[in-house]
Design goal:
Chain lengths: 260, 178
């Protein structure tokens, strides 16, 4: 790249006259180190997030990355956990990856904060790299509640809490804490309802379930997808034995189709 | 074509040191371009430009020269968008305001000299039409060639050369009258 202070004169270039130097020197001034650092930091985070997003999308579609081909089973294995991982991938994990890149691979040694470590481990495991996973106590899990919004859950001393709640425009959300280790977040928009049920299982892991309900068809069934966020990606599908035609977007990789 | 430059490759992966080098190299010129175009907060625009570049660098493919041209293309379009949003069309901040911005960090004497330089240079630019001004700034401040400028302004290199020739005649006239 050329610099203002190493400009070489080229007599054949009409823009290389004295007036051009004068203009260049007048408007091109050095940036403060703070401004360079801030701008570089933001750019590094954004580029790492974009890179992680591309890797995540490629993983979900089974694209080979670095010689590792993802299987459909791997890409779609986790149900609600996939929703969380997907959300984390876009909003947090990528930033964590950026941080890890910048700070010299803290994730490789398991030295990131738990939520960050978990998200990073989820992300890179899709390209065949296994990183240490944190203890689940205190983990924050972001759950994508279909198109209604996201809920970040944390377990502190065995108690389940909503750390953050974001409703997409048009949706309202309400938290119902039914017990210390159990809560429900209800998203409503007109006659549509999406619920997230979260429970701390006896082994201390977080179990979440997203369900969709519609009041327009009182006889319509409800479908749900649930997953255990325990790093091993168990998934359970609870269904009523009736056909439904809805598809629940939980991270873009899990659809529900239930038959009688 | 693929990215071969190690700095760009590192930046693509989110390396902060690579971005710092890029910002140190290109940032002053992006700020200068924005300042000369009359953007109220050129440093803010520069940050927006690099953020946008970072978000899209995964899809960038080319050399360092191509990257520089691409960054200025982002800067140019951001300024066009800003002007459109304001629905006032292209405008320049009054020379006094831009000159003040340029000398803001200097001491009183240096500041005065800097402001006078900027005033003088920007006054000459005010004689040009918006497209002539863009061509001159992209050639002089960004140090892009006619083809790169043409690609940013969506014009053929030949057209750019005609515009720059006209702009140079006007500027020579202004310089002679000083």
């Amino acid at each position: 790249m050329r610099h203002s202070n190493d400009h070489q004169h080229n007599p054949t270039d009409p823009f290389d006259a004295e007036w051009a130097d004068e203009l260049r020197n007048a408007v091109v001034t050095e940036l403060s180190p703070e401004l360079v650092a801030t701008t570089a930091h933001q750019a590094a985070l954004a580029s790492a997030a974009a890179a992680a997003s591309i890797a995540s999308a490629a993983a979900a579609s089974g694209t080979a990355i670095g010689g590792n081909t993802m299987t459909t089973a791997t890409a779609t294995m986790t149900g609600t956990a996939a929703a969380g991982a997907s959300t984390m991938g876009a909003k947090l994990a990528a930033i964590v990856v950026a941080g890890a890149t910048v700070t010299g691979g803290l994730a490789a040694t398991g030295n990131l904060p738990d939520a960050a470590q978990s998200a990073t481990a989820d992300l890179v495991s899709k390209v065949g790299i296994e990183l240490p996973r944190p203890d689940l106590a205190g983990i924050i899990e972001m759950v994508d509640v279909g198109s209604a919004g996201t809920v970040s859950l944390s377990i502190v001393d065995g108690a389940l809490e909503v750390a953050d709640l974001a409703a997409v425009g048009g949706w309202n959300a309400a938290i119902q804490q039914t017990a210390a280790d159990e809560l429900t977040v209800v998203f409503t928009q007109g006659e549509s309802t999406l619920t997230l049920d979260a429970t701390v299982a006896t082994d201390g892991s977080l179990v979440t379930e997203v369900a969709e309900r519609s009041t327009t068809r009182p006889d319509s069934p409800q479908g749900s997808v649930s997953g255990e966020v325990d790093g091993s990606a168990g998934i359970g599908v609870d269904t009523d034995p009736i056909e439904i035609d809805s598809q629940l977007d939980v991270g873009g990789s899990v659809g529900i189709g239930l038959n009688n | 074509m693929a990215i071969l430059d190690p700095v760009l490759l590192a930046a693509q992966g989110g390396d902060e040191r690579a971005w710092a080098q890029i910002v140190r190299d290109l940032g002053p010129r992006v700020v200068g371009y924005a300042r000369a175009k009359g953007v109220v907060d050129p440093e803010d625009l520069m940050q927006e430009v690099f953020l946008a570049a970072a978000q899209r660098i995964g899809r960038f493919d080319g050399s360092l020269d191509d990257f520089r041209s691409w960054v200025f293309s982002i800067a140019h379009h951001k300024m066009v968008d800003e002007h459109r949003r304001r629905a006032r069309g292209p405008h320049l901040v009054p020379v006094e305001a831009a000159a003040h911005t340029a000398g803001a960090d200097d001491g009183p004497a240096e500041s005065l000299i800097a402001r006078e330089d900027v005033r003088s240079s920007l006054r000459a630019l005010e004689e040009l039409s918006p497209v002539e001004r863009d061509v001159v700034l992209l050639r002089v401040v960004a140090e892009l060639d006619s083809e790169q400028v043409g690609s940013i302004l969506d014009k053929r290199p030949g057209t750019i050369r005609v515009i720059q020739s006209r702009a140079l005649d006007k500027l020579k006239q202004v310089v002679r009258e000083r």
